Amino acid sequence: MSCALCLSSCSGLSTSFNPATSSQETTIYSTDREVAIGAAVAREIEEGFVVVEDVPENERLGGVLGKLVPVVGRRDLVHVAKVIDPKEKDKKPGEDVVNAVSLPGGYVYVFLDLMRHVKEDDQLAAVVAHELAHVVARHSIKRLQASYANIVAVVSAMQVDGRLAGGINAATNAMFFQYSQADELEADALGVKYLKAAGYDPGAMVRMLETLREYDRKQPIRPKYYGRTHPYVHQRIAAANQVITGEMSYRDWVRMTGEGADGR
Question: How many angstroms separate the CA atoms of 155 and 27, rounded?
């Protein structure tokens, strides 16, 4: 994002209580701006992918969304969930897109392949609850604000001493990596809370993560990357188990502090 775009998106500092995170949060983006940003990206997604019109799949997703929205805590947003699929020209033979994405302002997109991999509605609810948690906790907006602060810091440093910019940029990027991992774990924890409140089995979050792990294990092994922005799936499983049970088993402690041979 350019400095000009960052500046044009700002609408002044404000502080409000976010029930999702149970904390006072300072933001430079109003709810209206948050929704506008999400709507702009949503248009790009819907132009770049096929919005699936399959009635059973949409009814299934809509039913899950309808049960979760009342319990997530942000009544200032209109939440929308859609099923999407890559266009035929973009599909790779034998490669499924087992993923979901959320956008600021209440948008959730679930790929058709993920819908088909997740057989039980409780697991689908875990996927949607996780994505809604990103939305209501304003994770994307917070990262956007952090990016803006990063740009300002680097530009200011360059004005003082050009050599400082690289170090500040590296330090801020390191903060982003940690922050993103915290986002994922918080979204899982909030998702468990939403599942329970909506009448779903909170253990479905763990089962959903185990489903994703099994899918990942069938994919080519990726080299270990110390700058990775997401926690490993086995770490997410351990953290979710702790949220559900209120304690950490030895097995989950090993999961949190170590990693599997394939880094997953």
Answer: 21
pLDDT attached to residue 154:
46
**80 bridge partner residues:** 107
Q: Are 62 and 70 in contact (CB under 8 A)?
A: no
The dihedrals phi and psi of 220, each to the nearest 5 degrees, come to -55, 140
Condensed to tens digits (0 to 9), the pLDDT of residues 244-259 reads 988 666 565 655 565 5
Distance CA 47, CA 8 (A): 24
From the list 182, 149, 132, 142, the residue with the least C-alpha distance to 29 is 142
Q: What phi and psi values does residue 228 have, to the nearest 5 degrees? A: -60, 145
| Gap between the Cα atoms of 62 and 28, Å rounded | 32
pLDDT tens-place string over residues 177-197: 443 788 999 999 999 999 999
